[in-house]
Amino acid sequence: MRNNIRIPIFNREFLFNVYNEIFVDEDIPDCRWIDHQWKPEISGNNIGSLYDTAAEHEVFRLLKFRTCAYCREKMDKINPISGGVAFVCKNCFYWGGRGTRPGGPSNTRGNLGRINFVKNLEEAKLEQVISYLNQNIDRLLGLTPTEAEKLLPEVLKDYLNCEVKAFGGTRDGGIDAMAIRGENEKMLIQIKWRESKNSAEKVSVVREVGGTLLARKIPQGLIISTRQKFSKDAIKESKLISENEIVNIGKLNIELKDFNDLIDMFEISAKTRTENLSSEEIIPEYNEGFDLFGHP
Questions:
Q1: Considering the domain boundaries, does residue 288 fall inside one?
Q2: Which residues contact 183 (CB under 8 A, 6 or more apart)?
């Protein structure tokens, strides 16, 4: 099941002239437009020679219904600098609109984000990866342990509302990250990324982390597993460890988080990140120096 993740990103634009006024009476995207093998009907070396009926239909469907062609959610509206209107989807980062080229005739340009699938998580924005996995939670099991150990600390920053430092390639008693809530409050984190959520996480994991807490003199520990639950012995052991208070360390505590808790983590992180992300940031290269509908 590993490496089966294909994340849709919309990092390519299709900029074209709009020649016709199309009436779209149903909110049904042209299936050709969200096919990654799509190619324009007429192409050339300049914008004026680019044309496609699927793209034209999509622009006018988008303007009327304001829904994402990919996930079908409502999209946010922005007003480009050079004039016109564009919409962006904060779920899957799809975007598109119609407007005016600087110095050109009004509303004669369309621009749409083109779909591209990537397997390497680093090719997509972090917010996009988290949002995608939140919507397709079972795909979490397709992450490799290395990918999970890089991604989970970022998700935990939002979930725990504190700094989370990944340990990278180093290994220290199986610990993958550390949450830091203050100068004197730290939590060691171990991530157990299994290929299946079936069965229960074993007690040996809890004992391993308990020993690491004592060795590192850090009282707080967090174990995250993709298993659907922890075994009865694991839960019992974590409670026994958490009943102890050690001189010069403090009261021990080990929290256990299973696959259901991972669902909550990604939901909170996705919501936090999309709320803090402006709609303009979703469009590739969009800023005051980038004209969405072309250059003069």
A1: no
A2: none
